[in-house]
Write a structure and sequence with these properties.
Elements lengths: L2 H13 L2 H8 L3 H15 L4 E4 L2 E4 L1 H24 L9 E5 L3 H14 L6 E5 L2 H9 L5 E6 L4 H10 L2 E9 L2 E5 L12 H4 L4 E4 L22 E4 L2 H11 L3 E3 L5 H4 L3 E5 L6 E8 L6 H15 L5
Helix pairs in contact: 1-2, 1-3, 1-4, 2-3, 5-11
Length: 304
């Protein structure tokens, strides 16, 4: 039995016929048929029932197929993680929305595990790509938020991709604004207060659905909107244009300076931020250490 034979079997079942599967696999039908028959002979069972109208799975074949899919999925995960990777081992890869505590935790992890030569990856990226990265094991850990608006959609998407969301903390929404913004003197701001100022949001690319937005209240109308792609740009727009963005309220002065401040947003909503991991993979020792540093970084902030 080979991985190739299992992949052939899965392709045949998906296509519904040997002829169609052979076309999709770019091999001849006799070659494909021979491969399946050799697999059946080696396993000592009939997997496919061949009829004049196509093929169907036998009861034994249905059970065998479920195991075959698991094996092929595991092989795909191994290939995504290790095949054609650089010679230098990548110690840890994390994909995250734009949170300073994700950076804090990575800094501490690198200080602890770095040594004289290393390769780490911290990817501040779009919501959908975080899910894709963890699904394909390009990253061991993802960091993203949910709230009552997007929870149902994102939970279903994570389930379909065999991913788990673990809560880090839940907090009330804040706005990030320039220290010189007229709203900076307020104890809290309302949505009405924000109407006069540019709303800043991270661009979600091809998946620019409200459900994938990195900011809550994405469906509310705003007369002034600016999409950005990175943290430096959003901070510059906060300072230069008196813009704002809605986030967790957690901001590292050590990493981001003191020009930007969080102010509570007076809305009936909450933000739950958590980690995303792959159910089919075991976290590395360094990934587990990163999670510890992530919790430690969050504990340093006054979350409310």
């Amino acid at each position: 039995m080979t991985i190739q034979q299992l992949k052939y079997l899965i392709a045949v079942v998906k296509a519904g016929s040997l002829n169609e599967a052979a076309k999709q696999l770019y091999i001849s039908q006799p070659t494909l048929s021979k491969s399946i028959k050799e697999l059946e002979k080696e396993m000592g069972l009939t997997i496919l029932k061949r009829t004049s109208t196509g093929i169907t799975l036998s009861s034994d074949g249905a059970e065998f197929l479920s195991y075959a899919r698991q094996v092929v999925e595991q092989v795909d995960l191994l290939e995504n993680k290790y095949l054609n990777t650089p010679h230098q081992e990548q110690l840890l890869s994390v994909s995250t929305q734009h949170y300073s505590f994700s950076v804090d935790a990575m800094v501490k992890t690198i200080e602890h595990h770095g040594g004289d030569k290393y390769q780490f990856s911290l990817r501040e990226t779009r919501t959908y790509e975080i899910i894709d990265d963890v699904k394909d094991l390009k990253s061991e850990i993802g960091v993203m938020y949910m709230n009552k608006f997007n929870e149902k959609i994102l939970t279903q998407l994570l389930k379909e991709n065999h991913l788990t969301f673990e809560v880090l903390f839940t907090t009330k929404p804040h706005v990030f604004i320039s220290r010189n913004n007229p709203l900076a003197a307020k104890d809290k701001v309302t949505l009405e207060d924000l109407q006069a100022y540019p709303r800043l949001s991270f661009d979600q690319g091809d998946h620019n659905s409200f459900y994938f937005s990195e900011e809550i209240l994405s469906t509310l109308d705003s007369p002034k909107n600016i999409l950005v792609s990175d943290r430096a740009t959003i901070f510059n727009c906060m300072i230069g244009l008196n813009g704002y963005t809605i986030s967790s309220g957690i901001l590292s002065e050590e990493l981001n300076g003191t020009d930007i401040i969080p102010v509570p947003l007076d809305v009936d909503d909450e933000i739950t931020i958590g980690t995303v991991t792959n159910n089919k993979a075991v976290l590395s020792r360094i990934a587990k250490h990163y999670l510890e540093e992530l919790h430690a970084a969050i504990d340093n902030y006054d979350i409310h």
